[in-house]
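Shipment paperwork, digital attachment
Item: protein structure file
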Amino acid sequence: MPLAARSFIAARANVVLRDIQFAVRSLSRTPAFTLAAALALALGIGATTAILSVVNGVLLRPLPYTDSDRLMVILNGNDNPVSAANFLDWRGQTRSFTDLAAAEYWTPNLTGSDDPEQINALHLTAGMLPMLGVRPLLGRVFTASEDVVGAAHVAVMGYGLWQRQFAGDSSIVGRTISLSGAPYTIVGVMPASFQFAPFWATHAELWAPLAIDKSSAKRSGNSLRVFGRLRPGVTEQQARADLAAVTSRLEQQFPGTNRNVTLQSLKHKVVGNIETALLVLLVAVAFVLMIACANVAHMLLARASSRQKELAIRAALGASRGRIVAQLLTESGVLALLGGAGGLLISFYGVRALVAASPAAIPRVSTVTVDGRVLLMTLAITAATAVLFGLLPALRAARVDLAGSFKDGDRASTAGRERHRLRSALVTSEFALALVLLVGAGLMMRTFTALRHFDPGFDPANVITMTISAAGTKEADSTVRQAYFSDVLARVRAVPGVHTASYINHLPIAGDVWGRSFYVEGRATPKPGDAPNAVYRVVYPGYFRTMRIPLLGGRDVSDADRAGSEPVVVINEFMATKYWPGENAVGKRIALGDSTWIRVVGVSKNSTHEWSAPASEELFLPYAQSDLRTAAQSPFEYLTLVARIDCRASVRCDAARVAAPIVSAIRGVDRRVAISAVQSMSAVVDLTTAESRFYLVLLGAFASIALLLAAVGIYGVMSYSVSLRSHEIGIRMALGAEPGTVLRFIVRQGMSLALVGAAAGLAVAFALTRLMKGLLYGVAAADLLTFVVVTAVLCCVALLASYLPARRATRIDPLTALRSD
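Attachment content:
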């Protein structure tokens, strides 16, 4: 590098260093100002960094698989599984994928100890784990020769299960464990970071081969999720066209089996449902940061007014306007660095709090950290805020009036009025942004309230639930299974404090949802694939009484409804009115995919299987007449117990206190049976509303910060205005102006700023809240009541923030004000 260039760089570095030293000394002389400005910036930068960490971890960071952007998922109707026969045909006929692999949910019992555990697991075709490209921590993954019918059972274990049940024993590879009574050899252990599948069965911690018998594969009984990796050079659109051509041919060959097949990237499937919510939070926190910057800009403008003589002296001594701007921007930069450091500290703790409080519906949130990318983003945000809040005040302050700056009467000068107008514009923007945030928080509050008051059709209070799985025990035998479950139920009903108890195959709103097609007697037989579907429930007598689901007609299933007697079913009100409008559905008959007619003996009130979802067809069959009674394999070896506590007993409606004796009663029949998911129904309901509560808390926190900063902003503007106009106010009062007149004058000025900001905020809110439609329930995005209430609250805050300086103005002594001039 030439000597001249090095000299120039060194000179500039010395100038910058001197500016920084001067800025530090200057800010240290006003510690209250420095602390207040740095704290406001720290709140804005910290909140922004925390939300950016979540956005980065959930939306931006690639999935933890090799070339994850080329991984696809194929489903039926965007969410539903597909059949084994369809999977085999797609794998054999498509040309866009290096491989297609399938996964099937599995809940075996880990037996062989006195405390068996039902675990979440997946059956996978052999190509699945190699497709993901994640190497096992120990051992290997299974091979193609191990996912054929008749092959020896092997499994790959998850890190959590390995640590929990086997204390991280490195000799686990090669050991045989018992899964639902069958021996499985562990061939590998996956690393702690491995999770599959990331959008469904997310708690799976064991993977075993999925053996599909090609000769008996059916196009019904859908249970597979299909995954694929695009070939090099093949786009998602090309793969979608390829799959559409294959499914079109299969639909012609097998009508009703290949409709509405969808392909999408695995990343989109994982984060698609949460993307809007995170972007809304990102916009909200950006508003908080902008309000914080506006507040600091107010403070810098006020500080610049008190430094006019200092800046005038520097200008008189030869400092150019650019030099003064550079010095003032350096001070802004130092403030921003202080705020950025504080914000980074806040973000570290904020991210921990967010991860701890986040609901399970947010994917990959457990991996969220403040990583290198987020640190770079924070640095960029800090630099941007320094310019955002520092540039305008610096430019205004650098416009030095040498003659007027040495006079005491400059407070009423044109420059002072211009600075006041700028501060007024800033506070107006603060109120506009705060109103948008408050409207968003208000909409989420109304959504959460509506969700909490949603009628699910049953009463969750004082109900305990748990899953009882007989897999791997002698009670799993289809010849004794019903007797075992009946024996357990009788013992549970005898537990003190239990009012009534029953079984269902899957818990409403928290369990799996099975669907069955059905036909209505007397109606034309629908074409293949056109038959209506209903949610398929299997219950024991007493289920409706236990869950307090009213029967609107007919009767409950009873002990008399057993094998050999006339098949019966209870249907919900939605199904009854849809297929027999204006008629009594009791006594009508339906068939479930076969020629056996089932008589409707009861109609129940609609009960939801997904919180806040509209009602749909649902039917309840007695366990003794269902295929669950005789089926020989999982998932037909478990039932979900529901038990209602008698609040009149001496248990004080404490679900936890009653759970222990219920578990003991079940263990008394057979200790080898796995009992899992012990929880109260109220806790299940809380989990379903956790996501909305999470967004409500965050938006509410951001809105509260914004409201506080906006109130401080308008208070600062009005206080500054009073200080500038104390001479004018003194003259008014000396000429006979009443204190009330002065009070109204000052308050009117403050309220005019708030009303202008509120009007602008309403316009922005009407536009932006439409982005929240997917997050809302029971309230419109442009809900008039929310907008009116929020505007009223904001105006009340503005009134208070204006009143305090106005009251101080009424106490100005006219003689003192005139003498100070």
